[in-house]
Amino acid sequence: MKDDLGRRMKQDYEDALRLTVPRRSYVVIRIDGRGFHTFTKSLERPYSRRLADALDQAAIGLCHEMIGCRFAYGQSDEYSFLLTDFEKENAPLWFDGNVQKMVSVSASIFTGHFNRAFGGDKIAAFDSRVLVISQGAEVEKYFLWRQLDASANSLNMLASAHYAHAELVGKSNTEKHEMLFAKGVNWAKQPADFKRGRAVRRSADSNSWEVDCTIPVFNRDPAYLREIIP
Description:
With 230 residues, the protein is an alpha+beta fold.
């Protein structure tokens, strides 16, 4: 009776919302910080190296766990991971493409590694989502989109460190640059990874993962992504 009941519970309820990603496609898992406006309120401004380093360590930890992970791109309080399963005919897909497993486990692992790396009394939380993209060219556009968002976030954070919120409302990016110049601050001279984000890639021996803090602007140097995206 127990086995029959268990099978019925799984079939009727547990498996009713089971979704799987299609095989032989590009899968992106994006991890985002939950409530990070509050979590980061006491950190150094405009950019926090402590926060960035903890995010990087969490990304490396998750890359090690993910089957089929090719690389990861991070900015602000998020990281996006690219997974594929078509390098070989029988290449496995992480959790066989089970979306619930992929989002829950990825968020859990990332959160654990981040909190251990960041330290302190605060506990951070992250959510996760899965995207399926059919074409490599669209994958490139996805990561370009996230990098454009990184640059916009970076400019806003720098401007917010020098001006009150009310002074920045309705201002265009060009106006924000001009306002910063008026105070002798040049966004272009800020650290590259805080302007463009960072990538976690396999090391030369392919046995470990390392952070690249000097990635190019993706639409100016498309070869960077095309070397990574299979």
